[in-house]
Give the backbone structure.
Amino acid sequence: MQCSAYSGQTIARRADCLVIGVFESRELGAEARAVDRALRGRVRGLLQRGDFAGRAGESLLLADVPGLRATRLLLVGLGAARNYHRRGWRRALTAAVTALARTRVASAVFALERPDERELDDYTLARSAAEACGAALYRINDLKTGKRPPAPSLARASFGPFAAGGLADARRGLGDGSAIAGSAALLRNIANLPGNICTPRYLAAQAAQLARSHRSVRARALNEAQIRRLKMGCFLAVTRGSAEPPRFIILEHRGGRRGAAPLVLVGKGVTFDSGGISIKDANAMDEMKFDMCGAATVLAAFDLAARLKLRLNLVGLIPACENMPGGRAIKPGDIVTSADGQTVEILNTDAEGRLILSDALHYARRYRPAAVIDMATLTGACVVALGAHHTGVMGNDDELARELVASGKRADDRAWQLPLTEEYGEQLKTNFADVANVAGRDGGAITAAAFLGRFTKGMKWAHLDIAGTAWLSGAQKSATGRPLALLGDFMIRRARG
Ligand code: BES
Ligand code: MN
Ligand code: ZN
C-alpha cells in the first residue's frame, strides 16, 4: 500500500473515502467537527438520531455525502473520550481499514482524532499508522483450493492533518512503517506455513532468497556434518529423532562501519515441536509448527534492515531443526556436551529450544557482538505469566532490557522484563552433569532464561520469550508478526542514534 501524509484542510481532500472518528458520548473531535461543519451538521444529525454510538471498533459507511469531495464517508468509533489513548487510536484505525477492506474503496483519507502528542509524535504516529494498516490488510497465505476472495482494493492511504512542520517526520514514519509492515507480512507468511513445507531446509532457502534480493545481505547454511564439526552437541541432540536434516543458518547485513561490533540476532527455528520422547499431548499440537517464529523474526529483521538500509552491522543465527520422537531420538536422562564444553542432562526432551539456542549463543561469541538478542517461543510458563499481551524480556544487562521494553512501547508491541536473578539458575542443578535442561514448573520462563544465561557470559545479552505473543489460537489462528515491530524500533534507534 502507498501511504502519504497531508497538512491543511481535511474536507478538501479527494479520495474514495474519508474516515473520521466519533467518541462514545456522540462527541466529535476537532477534525470530525470541522468536517461536520462543512457538511452542515449531517454527522451530528446522524448521531442525534442514535444511528451511531461511537463504540470502539464500530464503523458506519455513508455514500454520496453532499459537500464532500470524497465519494464516501466512514465514521469509526473511538470509544470514551477520556480513555482515548494510542491504543484506542490504533484500534479505530484497524477497524476502519478492516471495514474498508470489505469494499471497493481504493483510496482513503484518514483524519482520525489524534492521541496526545506526548504519547505519539508525528514520526511515531505515522509509523504506527502505516504498520497498523499493513497488519489489518494481511491475509493468511492459506492452501485452500476454492475460489479466492478478492484481495482488498485499498491501495492508497493518506493520513493527517499534520502541521506543515511535521510533514517531513510523518513521511519518514510512513516509510519506516510500510517497511515494517512488509517485513512483518514476510514473517507471518513463513510462520503460517505447515511443518511439512516449512522445514529447516525451507528456512535456509528463505535466507538464501533474502541474500539474492538484497545486496547488503549474505546468507549461508551449515549442514549436519558442519554442525558436528562445530561440536554443537546440544543442537545435534535435538535433531537426532528427526528424518528432516537440520540447518544452522548464518545471515549478515553489512550496513555499519567496517569493523564496528555487530548486533547478533538469534532465532529459535524448531519447525515442529512434538516434544520428542517427552511427547506433548495431542491438544493443539498443530500450533507447534509456530515454534520457528523466532527464526522467522530474524529473517524478517534482515529483510527490514536491508529495505531501510540501516547503518548497522547485523549477524543472524538460526539453529533450525525438528523435535521428534524416534528410535534415534534423545531420551530423558541422556547427557550431551554443548559447543562450549558444558555437560547437559536432558531431563525433558520437550525443553529443546534452550538446547539449540545454547549452541547458537555460544557461536555468537566469535563476532564480539555489541549485543546479542535471542527470540524464541521458549516456554508455556511465559504464556501463563504474561498471557498474549507482553513478550517476556530477560537477560544479563538491565540497560539493554530496558531499551527493548521502551522499543516495545513505542512500537505497540509490548514487552515486560522478568527478574533473572541468580536463584533461578540454582534450580538447574543435577547430580549427573554440569546442568540440567529443566528445573520444575515454578518460574519456568526464568529458569529457561537462566539456562541460556550460562552460554552468554561476558556478552550483553537479552532474551525475548515470544511464546505468548508470536501467534494467536482459535478462530484467529495465525502468526501475529510480533516481535518484529519492537525489534524494528530497536534496530532503527541503534542505527540512527
Ligand atoms: N515450544 C515450547 C514452548 C511453548 C509451549 C510455546 C506452548 C507456546 C505454547 C517449548 O519447546 C516447550 O515445550 N517448553 C516446555 C518446557 C518444559 C518442558 C520445561 C513447556 O513450556 O512446557
Ligand atoms: Mn518443546
Ligand atoms: Zn519448542
About this structure: The mean pLDDT is 97. The first helix runs from residue 30 to 38.
